[in-house]
Request: fold
Amino acid sequence: VTASLLIPPEKLGTPEMSDSPWALLPTASNHAQALDDLYLFITLLCAISMVLVIGAMVYFMFKYRQRGPNDKTDPITHNGRLEFIWSAIPAVFLVVIFVWGELDFMKLSAPPSDAIDIRITGQKWLWTIEYPAHPGGPSLTCPRNAAECPAEEKTPTLIVPLGKPVQLTMTSVDVLHSFYIPAFRTKKDVVPGRYATMWFTPIKEGEFPIFCTEYCGDEHSSMLAKAIVVPPEQYEARVAAATKLERETTETMAAYGQRIFTVMGCPACHTTDGTVKVGPSFKGLWGKQETLADGSRVEIEDNYIRESLMEPNAKLVQGFPPQMPTFQGKLNEEQVTALIEFIKAQQ
Ligand code: CUA
Reply:
């Protein structure tokens, strides 16, 4: 929480806010206005009820105040008609809220059949966003030259087309996370071992922040992403550029490895400056002798790195939790080689 408070809002990609302190967030999806309307209805209902109840209370306190030491209250039993009215009227409003909410909830739960399929994976503390129609890597704001990207441009990016329905199929590899796009008014828990789905049609172009909104550990508050709504005719090209993970002809293997390192979200757990996060730092790692959890020794070389990518829990270095997801099927041989070259270069 502290970390996100220190980051200026423009760095988080927060959309422009209205100057009015009463304004809600931008309504950037098809669900947003309906949710705001219901929210406003409930708020007004609460405000009116409060005025009626507190008003009657103050009025009766004054009207039936004790006027002298011998002023005794008449014995009060009950008033059937009054009690019926004050139960029935709120009950009708509660039913209205239920039916209204249920109708909106049904719309939220039923994606149109032509929705674009996007996959989201949550893990401590990173969202991986993948497009089955565009195999490659998960998308970041600027993966093409990731090394030069400012830190806030390395956030995972959900690229969606204006006016087209999108369905997210989401899961988690470790604990419970929750995928929340405030400007779209959509939020859903992401649970390990099952899929959760969410759908929306973006109705406003622009960049909108995405948060993890279920406390999931130390770095919960930095588990951010960004939704970018682009014109539909730009969508295909933007996604293709963001997910591209082939080696550029001019790129060295180590530079390609660095790009894969960033795009695949490895910096969430590994650093290259010696700082130990969830996993070991890559600085000076190549050729090092490490002690494994079972006490045996291993040298960090090609085979060890390859095995750690494919079966991360096979040989755990002492003191590190078994938290790395497998990259089996996600990296080809050239990409594994590039990562090895990248780790080799971190001396
Ligand atoms: Cu993931 Cu909080």
Observations:
- The first strand starts at residue 116 and ends at 123.
- The CA atoms of residues 40 and 46 lie 10 Å apart.
- The pocket of dinuclear copper ion is lined by residues 122, 125, 177, 212, 214-216, 220, 223 (CB under 6 Å).
- The chain has a mean pLDDT of 85.
